Every structure is written in C-alpha cells, then in structure tokens.
Amino acid sequence: MIERVLVVMVLSVATLAACGGSQKQVEVKGKETETAKLAGDWEGTYEGNESGRSGPVRFSLQLGRHTADGEVVMGGETPLRIQFIEVAGGKVAGKIAPYTDPNCECEVETSFIGTVSGDTISGMFSTKIGATGQIQTGTWQVTRK
Fold first, then answer.
1. In the chain, which end has fewer C-beta atoms inside a 10 angstrom radius, N or C?
2. How many CB atoms lie within 10 A of CB 144?
3. Rounded distance, CA 31 to CA 29, Å?
4. Fold of 5-144
5. What is the pTM of this model?
6. Which H or E run includes 33?
C-alpha cells in the first residue's frame, strides 16, 4: 500500500494511499561514497500488488548533503513523507511515516528496499495494515534524469 516508495527513495521507494505531508529534507544515512552514487534527480513509479494502486516517486540528492528532497504520491494527489533513507552496499532502504490508507481508513506503516544499478534503483516495499496486521507488497523503480 505504500505503493510508492521510494525511494525512493527513494528512495525510495518508493513507495510506496493516504494523508501525509509534503516531502522535504529526508535524512539520508550512509558513507559519502555510497550517498554520492545517489546524487541527482530521480523519477519513477510504484505499483502495489494487492491494492493495484500505482503512482509517481520523485527525489533529489545533492552531493555533500545528507538530506534528500522528494515525495511519493498516492493516487496522483496525496504526498507521503519519507522518514529516512539508508544507503549501504549498493542497497537503499527506508521507511515512510505512518499514514492513513484510504481503502481501510486505518493507519499503515511502509518500508522499502531497493538496489542501485547505475542510473536505476528498483526494489520492493511492504505495508503493514495496523488494524489487521496484514502485509501488502509492491514494487518501485526510479531512474536518474
């Protein structure tokens, strides 16, 4: 249900349905050599397996900063707030702040992971539905512009 990730950030992520705030200044954890690989503007999409929802993922990371600007948008309108992103060993991982999913009208938590391959980051996300504990999954991908 986060179907947005990411990441991206992703980043991721996207991810990867709800009521969140506009995305700004996401903390990016990792060594300079790892975060430097993510420098630039990234755009892509996410898609939820169970929910069938999809949407855009955007983020930007400048060299020398350990923060990124970006957003994951659900349903074409609602931006979700990425809490943090961690980069290590060519992998990107993070979490989206808890939000209210429009399908269940309940709070959900989403985490994402992806693999950096040149100018593409692709991965998966999982969303835990607070009311039932059910886990929903999906995929996301972003490309450096």
1. C
2. 17
3. 7
4. Porin (2.40.160)
5. 0.77
6. helix 32-35
What φ, ψ does residue 101 adopt, rounded to 5°? Answer: -80, 135
Scanning the structure block, which residue is given the tokens 């969140």?
20
Beta-bridge partners for 42: 59, 144
The tens place of each residue's pLDDT in the chain, 145 residues long, gives 333 333 333 333 333 333 333 445 677 788 888 888 888 889 999 999 998 888 888 877 776 665 666 667 766 567 887 777 888 999 999 888 898 888 888 999 999 999 999 999 999 999 999 989 999 999 999 999 9
Backbone angles phi, psi at 2, to 5 degrees: -85, -10
* SS3 category, 62: coil
Q: Determine phi and psi for 24, rounding to 5 degrees.
A: -150, 150
- 14 is written with which tokens? 């996207």
**Domain spans in the chain, listed from the N-terminal domain onward:** 5-144
Cα distance between residue 93 and residue 77, in whole Å: 24
